[in-house]
Amino acid sequence: MHQQFTEIIYLIQQSRNKAIKAVNVELINLYWNIGAYIKQKISVAEWGDKTVDELAQFIQKNNPELKGFNQRGLYRMIQFYETYANVEFVSPVVRQIQHADNQCDKIVSPLVTQFEFLPQDITKTILVQLSWTNNLIIFSRCKTEEEREFYIRLTIKEK
User: Fold this and answer.
1) 1, 36, 47, 84: which has the fewest Cβ within 10 Å?
2) Count of beta carbons in the 10 Å neighbourhood of residue 38
3) DSSP states of 122-136 as a string?
């Protein structure tokens, strides 16, 4: 009987680990898209630095339960996007998505057409194999693309 109970515990742990990984993938994808969205608005001079501060205050006021979306967190998301948006080792998927985003003729669903920004799906990239904390440490401390790639791959290998 003890063996069967242990097997149940194993199943629970496996499912929990899968759930944690799935949540991490979605969070990394979300942070990428928030960074891309804000960067796009700033690049076309539609938004300025004060707008990012206003966004952080708006989120805090309207959704105080959302953590990590303060001014500092939003700028980290921008930095995350800027750091890896054009990096070859991340994945050719990101570059293909960006190329497709620049195309004029698109067929999209009516719901998507309500938004100016089309989210990118980076769930197949190497970046989602790391936690947000590991990504944050690597992109903020490493100075070169080669150094970032080395530590990303090392972190994945050491997991």
Assistant:
1) 1
2) 20
3) -TTSGGGGS-HHHHH
Q: Copy the structure tokens of residue 157.
A: 């290998």
**50, 6 in Cβ contact below 8 A?**
no
How far apart are alpha carbons 12 and 106 in whole angstroms?
Answer: 43
| Residue 118 CB contacts under 8 Å (≥ 6 apart), including other chains | 101, 108, 112
pTM exceeds 0.85, yes or no:
no
Look at the chain and report how many structural domains it folds into: 1
Taking the CA atoms of the chain, what radius of gyration do you get in angstroms?
Answer: 19
pLDDT by residue (tens digit) across 11-24?
999 999 999 999 99
What is d(CA 157, CA 159) in angstroms, rounded to the nearest whole number?
Answer: 6
For residues 138 and 104, is the Cβ–Cβ distance under 8 A? no
Domain that holds residue 23: 2-104+113-158
As given in the structure block, the two tokens for residue 136 are 């944050």
